[in-house]
Amino acid sequence: MQFTLPARPRRKPSLTPMIDVVFLLLVFFMLASRFGVEAMMPLPLAASGGDGYRGPPRLVDISPDAVALNGRIVHDLPAALQPLMAAPTDMVILRGREGADLQRVVSISEQLRDAGFTALVLVE
């Protein structure tokens, strides 16, 4: 006499635990991610007086490893700009050279704003 177990119907795996894990991961990454705050840096097209450019040249070249004022490398840009400025509202032209990243341009413009220079113009 031979005893055989009756064939049990094959169960399909439940997708509910996998869906739960996916939603938990989704919620985790939504809560853990940091959304960037957009910051705006005002750069006027002309000096605040609206008369255009006046006075000696004030061209700041920003490269990855140095900052040059009118073609000469300077280490303290606000101090080098001071003799060329009649007023803090005189226009200073910033030009990013090849290889200079945006963060470097922004940090130098913030350094100039902290020193009191208000009319910064960024050119390509």
TrEMBL record:
GO terms for molecular function: transmembrane transporter activity. GO terms for biological process: protein transport. The keyword Flavoprotein does not apply. InterPro entries: ExbD. The keyword Transmembrane helix applies. It is a single-pass membrane protein; Single-pass type II membrane protein. GO terms for cellular component: plasma membrane. It comes from the Bacteria. Pfam families: ExbD. Keywords: Cell membrane, Membrane, Protein transport, Transmembrane, Transmembrane helix, Transport. It is found in: Cell membrane. Belongs to the ExbD/TolR family. This is Biopolymer transport protein ExbD/TolR. It comes from Pseudoruegeria aquimaris.
